[in-house]
């Protein structure tokens, strides 16, 4: 999880702003709001830097030096209650563990409104992370600005960023986990995401079509407009 913090820090540095003063640090006791210059979308060009606010569930991690180099990076938008996420949850954990050993950093974000879906809030996220032994930071996007910045539309939704030396992060994949859905009787394989990750980690072009993810729509705050 420390490497995910490095990647989040460097990703936002390269996409949103030329400077960053501190590295996000996730700890077992952290539930309060922290400022994190987090992430971005591949179409960000000359948009002004913006400080986004997230909250971290109570999950274990440790600090890392600011000068540490960022790895390739996966961002996924998930939540606790969505049947499409529940269907994949154990396989998402397995994939994250498999690719952590290959040098991939992963972070999960929940952007759902807790006004309409309190079960998706940070306290329940912490329980979920512990129950499924999440090997990645599980963050709460309280303002929903991170989801807007990415153009995330549903849960689950997967983004892979590649990092080539000192060049900025580049979005390489935005799509589904695989073709399995609740009740469609197709086996869960993670095929699409695994092929995309293997291509990125071996510096090859992604060799499959990028199919949009299908799932539950992100639950926007009442009265807000996407």
Task: Lay out the secondary structure.
Layout: H1 2-15, E1 33-36, E2 52-56, E3 72-77, H2 83-100, E4 104-110, H3 122-131, E5 138-140, H4 145-150, E6 154-155, E7 157-162, E8 170-175, H5 191-201, E9 216-217
Parallel strand pairs: 3-4, 4-5
Antiparallel strand pairs: 1-2, 2-5, 3-7, 6-9, 7-8
Account of the protein in words:
There is one protein chain. By secondary structure, the chain is an alpha+beta fold. The chain has helices spanning 2-15, 83-100, 122-131, 145-150, 191-201; strands at 33-36, 52-56, 72-77, 104-110, 138-140, 154-155, 157-162, 170-175, 216-217. Strands 1-2-5-4-3-7-8 form a 7-stranded mixed beta sheet, with helices on both faces. A two-stranded antiparallel sheet has the order 6-9.
Summary, kept brief:
The protein is an alpha+beta fold. Helix content is 26%, strand content 18%. It is built from 5 helices and 9 strands, in the order αβββαβαβαβββαβ.
List keywords for this structure.
Glutaredoxin, 226 residues, seven-stranded mixed sheet, alpha+beta, 9 strands
What strand line-up does the widest sheet have?
1-2-5-4-3-7-8
CATH top-level class:
Alpha Beta
Write down the CATH topology.
Answer: Glutaredoxin
Q: What would the average pLDDT be, to the nearest integer?
A: 77
Order of helices and strands: HEEEHEHEHEEEHE
Number of DSSP-assigned strands: 9
Whole-number tally of structural domains: 1
How many helices?
Answer: 5
The rough form would be described as globular
Task: Report the major sheet.
Answer: 7 strands, mixed
CATH architecture: 3-Layer(aba) Sandwich
Helix % is 25-40%
Low-confidence stretches: 2-54, 61-70
């Amino acid at each position: 999880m420390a490497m995910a913090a490095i990647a989040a820090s460097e990703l936002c540095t390269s996409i949103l702003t030329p400077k960053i003063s501190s590295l996000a640090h996730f700890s077992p006791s952290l539930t309060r709001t922290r400022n994190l210059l987090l992430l971005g979308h591949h179409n960000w060009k000359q948009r002004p830097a913006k400080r986004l606010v997230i909250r971290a569930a109570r999950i274990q991690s440790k600090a890392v030096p600011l000068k540490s180099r960022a790895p390739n990076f996966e961002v996924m938008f998930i939540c606790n209650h969505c049947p499409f996420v529940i269907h994949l949850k154990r396989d998402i954990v397995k994939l994250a563990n498999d690719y952590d050993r290959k040098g991939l950093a992963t972070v999960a974000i929940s952007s759902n409104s807790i006004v309409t879906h309190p079960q998706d809030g940070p306290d329940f996220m912490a329980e979920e992370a512990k129950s499924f032994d999440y090997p990645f930071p599980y963050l709460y996007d309280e303002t929903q600005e991170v989801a807007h910045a990415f153009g995330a539309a549903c849960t689950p939704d997967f983004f892979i960023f590649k990092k080539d030396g000192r060049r900025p992060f580049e979005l390489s994949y935005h799509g589904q986990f695989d073709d399995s859905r609740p009740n469609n009787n197709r086996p869960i394989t993670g095929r699409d995401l695994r092929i995309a990750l293997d291509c990125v980690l071996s510096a090859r072009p992604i060799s499959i079509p990028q199919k949009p993810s299908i799932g539950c729509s992100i639950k926007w705050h009442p009265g807000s407009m996407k």
